[in-house]
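Quarterly update from the structural biology core.
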Amino acid sequence: MIRVGDAMKSVIRGSDRRGGLLKARAAEVWEEVVGPDIAGHTVGMGVRAGELNVHVDSHAWATQLTLMSEELRDRINTALGESSVRSVRFTVSSAVSEARAQKNTEVQARRRYGGEVVEPVPLSDEETREIVEAAGEIDSDSVREAAIRARIRDKELKKGREMRSSTLGPSEGPRGAKTDGLP
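Predicted structure, tokenized:
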């Protein structure tokens, strides 16, 4: 007797000749396996020829994680349920470093100024067109584009606040302050 789940895994592995499923699964479980502290400095990119590629935000983290690579490899393989990752390679990436810096800036701003976490709501084509038309009088292309991006982001966040306050109603915000949809 064969369990249905085992049979399905076998069929999926057999049809995944290029290893795309393994690449995706390894990158997906990376954060879960290493925890939030390490995940905050890294991005699991996927597996190629048995090597898990991980981008890190600094040389210090790359060095530290390289010392832990055998343990991390074992934990990844355990999470995957197979021994398909033979090694782990850490590469310093400016993109990870920049994303980390941006996130830190946002966290510090929230701590300093308080405020709720609001998901932006995309603008309609009409709203976007109005913003682009209003910025049409700006002579400098780079300044005009920056103004358009800033105005779109601002309006998306305002729509997010409005949507949140209309679905939740007045609620307690940071430090016990009322957040009645007001910035």
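The helical segments are 4-15, 20-39, 59-67, 69-80, 94-113, 125-134, 141-168.
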